[in-house]
Design a protein that fits this description.
single chain; 172 residues; Jelly Rolls; 9-stranded antiparallel sheet; 9 strands; globular
Length: 172
């Protein structure tokens, strides 16, 4: 019985210690100068959007990304495994969520997106925003109109160009 009690106390102390160490890591201050942020194209994201990791590791979870998108850049219907918190810094964007009304995001606006909830994002005027992900690796799962998952190549394929009217047909 004494051995079992010792094991329970040891596990409890170990648990407290690991919580303390984790809390210390989270309590470290960090400063990232915007001017030194290196913006890159993330795989599976439209070419009109770039990002810079400000803290954490998006491949492991709990990361903060600074994103920039050109006017007209659209991230089609998709979802993420982790929760997503978006804070607009500049510009204007439209966010649409399945089973919800579209919203227009302006500087200072905040948007919380639940894990695995389909949404799309369109930058309407040169966008800059923070995207804070939750406790899972950052990923993007594109979906079609029926909600079925599709490959990024299919989701990001440019729409066919509109056919220009034939001048000869218009002159008759």
């Amino acid at each position: 019985m004494r051995f079992v009690s010792w094991c329970v106390v040891s596990v409890f102390v170990l648990g407290l210690t690991s919580q303390f160490v984790a809390a210390q890591e989270a309590d470290k201050s960090a400063y990232v100068a915007g001017a030194t942020s290196k913006f890159v194209n993330f795989p599976g994201i439209p070419p009109g959007m770039t990002g810079a990791v400000q803290s954490g590791d998006p491949g492991k979870g709990n990361a903060t990304l600074l994103l920039k998108a050109q006017t007209g850049c659209k991230v089609p219907w998709h979802w993420h495994t982790p929760t997503e918190r978006v804070m607009m810094v500049s510009g204007r964007a439209k966010a649409e969520m399945k089973d919800g009304s579209p919203v227009v995001l302006r500087p200072g606006d905040f948007l919380y997106l639940a894990a695995k909830h389909a949404h799309q994002f369109t930058c309407q005027a040169s966008c800059s925003l923070f995207d804070v992900t939750g406790d899972a690796p950052f990923d993007v799962h594109y979906v079609d109109a029926n909600g079925n998952e599709i490959p990024p190549e299919q989701a990001l394929k440019p729409a066919p160009a509109a056919k220009k009217p034939d001048k000869a047909a218009n002159q008759q």
